Amino acid sequence: MKKILLLFILLEISCSLRKGPPKDTAVILVEAEIGEIDPRYAVSAYGVKLSRLIFSSMISYDNEKLDITYELLKSVKSLSDTKWELVLRKGRFFADGSEVTAGDIAGTIELYRSKIGRASPYGHRWKDVEDISVEGKYRVIISLEKVRPTFIQDLDMPILPVKAIKSGNWSENSLFGAGRWKIKSRSRTSIILERNPWYSENAGKIKYLEFRSILEENIRALLMESGYADLSQNNISQLVSSRLKNVIVSNSPGLTLTYIGFNTDTPYLKDVKVRRALAMAVDRNGLIQSRFRNAAIKASSVLPPSHPYSCETGVEPTFNPQKASQILEEAGYTKDSQGVRFTLEYKTSSNPFRLSIVRAIAMQWAAIGVHTRIRSLEWGVFYADVRARRFEVLSLQLPEIMSPDILGEFFHSSKIPSQDNPGGFNRWGLRSTEFDKNYNLSSMTMDSVLRKNYFCKMQKIIQEQLPVFPIWFEHNSAVKSKRLRKYRMIPNARFTGLNQLDFN
């Protein structure tokens, strides 16, 4: 069945190659299904990225320096430690022609918070709202139950057309926002966006953006080299892109962390000595050179080195397979007659490039006597296992690391998935009273110096306990057609650069 589907794809592509892409359409290739775009529920990488093209946020950090950009808001003012004033810009419109008002800001927050029907995975960010007061058409006052140091960062949230949603004029294929683009059509493997006519200064040669899901890397490379597609970002490996002709390849620093996750509630991985030995057996420099052609940097923390709260911990595992083997031997994990100490199951996605990295890591672990059984799964199955903690070891990526409070989301003991909290992100099972204490203290102050001190302590605990092993931050990489111009990547790898896109 898979071969038949691939044949149909190749036939479709061959027809497309003869015609070439439309002159008014930029074709962007993605390596996975886009998923949901409704910002309340979008969790896939491309669902989130496309939602930011269709919806405008109150503020954003979508620029090369990651500075605050005021989008729908004109100003944000702290009236007290727990009370904030938001003032909207006038003359910003949704794609149906209705103006964005204070009621949409208040209504969007309530929709995210709502416990009626399907809950949003982002609703917890607004659970501390005590009161929302709409003061006229463009002013909102938000009162919180307690101090929230991340309040301004949390305003990076797409705003919804509340009246349209409540009237029932809303579905995944017809949703719209106040962004530069709106949905023209959608199928299982593609989505076409057209310009929002109500967005000011929104003209350009490119009238449409077509996103096509092409799962096979070699086919994406063929489409780019042939001139059928215009952009493939972060989904053609350096090894492949370096051999392509008739394209422009560019790289820039990124914020996406690649890490190895350990389930600390499993028999071998509950021992921190095992986790440290495994980390010390991974030759990160070698993998960065061989797999990325040096287009990545080693991670010394979960936070990227450019982050203002990133800290050198002094306890980062360094590559030393001899020492790693010694640690396991002294901890009582002796080798059997086959030279194997124990076996671990390592789950990853079916992405061939990611799978090749896992195989390389498995070979390095074999050198210290750890046998690895690799399970490569389709994304939906893989992610379901991740959420349910049905794994021993896994590899994942964490994109868009902006707020340091992501450490609390991923490592606070209250975030371990449970029957009461099935969506918790501490899937590793870290239980550290010291970590919890420092995170709780960081949440009680607006003082940036104090907060950084707490977060430095948290980063050190993570590197000591190693519930996850941060391995590297990959550069953003774009393969572009020669007709494309004005496209600039930004560190968080969102598609904001498509807004200024043009053709030669």
What does this 3D model show about the protein?
The chain is an alpha+beta fold and 504 residues long. The chain folds into three domains: 21-33 and 179-253 and 479-503, 3-Layer(aba) Sandwich (D-Maltodextrin-Binding Protein, domain 2); 59-166, Dipeptide-binding Protein, domain 1; 257-474, Dipeptide-binding Protein, domain 3 (Roll), CATH 3.10.105. It has helices spanning 2-19, 45-54, 102-113, 151-154, 162-166, 217-226, 238-241, 272-280, 284-292, 321-330, 352-366, 379-387, 406-411, 433-442, 448-465; strands spanning 25-30, 59-60, 69-70, 73-80, 83-88, 129-134, 139-144, 181-186, 190-195, 208-213, 231-233, 247-252, 257-262, 296-298, 342-349, 370-377, 393-398, 468-474, 476-481, 484-485, 502-503. It has a seven-stranded mixed sheet, sandwiched between helices. A six-stranded mixed sheet has the order 14-18-13-17-15-16. It has a four-stranded antiparallel sheet with strand order 4-5-7-6, with helices on one face. Helix 8 packs antiparallel against helix 10. The two termini are 41 Å apart. Mean pLDDT is 92; it is low at 1-7.
